[in-house]
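Materials and Methods. Structural model of GntR family transcriptional regulator. The 237-residue sequence of GntR family transcriptional regulator from Fusibacter ferrireducens was retrieved and submitted for structure prediction as follows.
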Amino acid sequence: MEYKVPKYLQIKQDIIKAIKSGDLRPGDKVDSESVLKKKYNVSTITVRKAFNDLINEDYLIGVQGVGTFVTKKQMNRKLTSISFSDELLQQGYKIDMQVDKIEEIVNESIAEKLMIPHTQSIVCVRRIRLANNEPIAYQISYMDSSLISIEQVQAIYKNKSFYKTLAEYDIVPVWANENYSVKAVNDSQIAKLMNIKKNTDTFFVKRSTVDEAGKIIEYAETYFNKDWYSVTVEVKM
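The predicted structure was written out as tokens:
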């Protein structure tokens, strides 16, 4: 005997399929109840059941008087890995990175954070982190130029990963210290690259990364889009 899929489940499965294939992207408005009623030849109750399930499962979000939209799934950081890319991959995201700028600078404040002489030049790598083709973070990494040169760090264009690039020169981080706060993006260029309005609040993370010998090998500052990012901390009693 052939099993007939309930209409509400068919609507639900079709919407999930469209989201996973990319036909429906985060923030897209889905068809209205009236459109789906005609398309599937069903009642309002059937469409609402499908919508309710999808909203409860965080695929959709309903905005009263406006419509129903595909949610922006948050990247939930569990603080178990030094590599941001690894955490995104573990959660099923398609990841990418775009380099904004690579430059060599002298900065007394950053030098202090790296615990190097104030006059020592610093390699600065600015980049956008993407998840499912959406910009979710803007990262700025600073390193002592005596550890890696501005020519060597160009390999990031090929590797699409800062830490893979460091590994090519036997620079291996083993632990990191991170400080979290809320900070508005007041740089119009950074806001544009993050696809947010200037002065929008973000999660701001200051991070010092250390090698096995206890030397600070990187100081980084990252703006995380708050619509895409959350942190989970597990505490044992």
